[in-house]
Amino acid sequence: MNKIIETVPNFSEGRDEAVINQIADCFRNTAEVKLLDVKPDKDHNRTVVTAIGEPEPLKNCLYKAFDVAVAKIDLKKHKGEHPRMGAVDVVPFIPVRNSNMNECIELAKETAKAISYKHNIPIFLYEAAASSPDRQNLANIRKGEYEGWLEKIKDPKWKPDFGPSEMHPTAGASVFGAREYLIAFNINLSTGDIKIADKIARAVRGSSGGYVNVKGMGVELTGRGIVQVSMNLVNYKKTPIFRVFETVRLEAARYGVNVVGSELIGMAPMEALLQCADYYLRIEGFDMKQVIENNL
Question: Which residues are annotated as catalytic?
C-alpha cells in the first residue's frame, strides 16, 4: 500500500492571482500527488495550499513551489493581517494513510535541509519535529515576524535548525514540522472594532486561559468593514468546532455583537463537521456508520 502524507504550506501572498496560480501549478499534474485546495485571503495576504501524495513526489512539488515563492514574494513589501516571517511561512506534514508521525518528521527535515541549502534560507523545525521544547509552538518561533527576526535571528538561542543565522533578504525564514490535523477556523463579527475581536480571542485561546487546543487572534477585514476571530483548532476531538463557535458567540453577545458568518481555511476531517451536525440537529443515537461516504 502506498504511503499518503498531507502537506499544508502557507504562502505570504493572497492578492496576486498570477503568483498564486504559479504556486498552485507546482502541485498540479504530478503523478502520485493530488492538489486538494487553494485558499487565498486578501486581508490576510496569505494563501493556504493543501495537497496529499507520496513522500518523494510531494517533496518535489514543494521544491518547485519554493522556487516560485522565493522569486516572486518580497517580504520587505508584504503587508497583511496574518503574522508571517517567510515567503513560504510554514510547511507542516501530516500522516494520512500507511504513514506515521516519525516518517513525517523525517520528511520535514529532509525537505527543509534541501530547500535551505538551495535558497540559503534559515529554516526552523516545530511541533513534533521541533529540536527543543520552546520551538514546538509555532507562535513562539514566529513572534516578532519578519521585521523583528532581522535582529532576533542573531541571538544564539534562535540559531536555525538549517541554514544561515541571517534572514533571506526577501524570503525571510521558514518553519517546517510534523503534526496531526489542524483546523483553521475563523468567525466574523458584526463590528469593525478590533478591540472586541481581540478580547474574544483572548477568552477562547489556551495561552490566555481559554481552550488549551485553540490558538486565536483578532483580525481586521478592512475590505468588509468588520473584524474576525481567527483561530487554529489543534485537536478537534478534544475541542470540537461547535464548542468554540458557541463560546465565541456568547462572548460576542457580551458586547452587543453578533456572529455574521464563519469560514474554513483549507480542509477539515469529515468527523469534525459531523460533530457539528450532531450537536446542532440533536440527532439521537447518531453513529458515524449512518454516513453514506463512510460505507463506500
Answer: 82
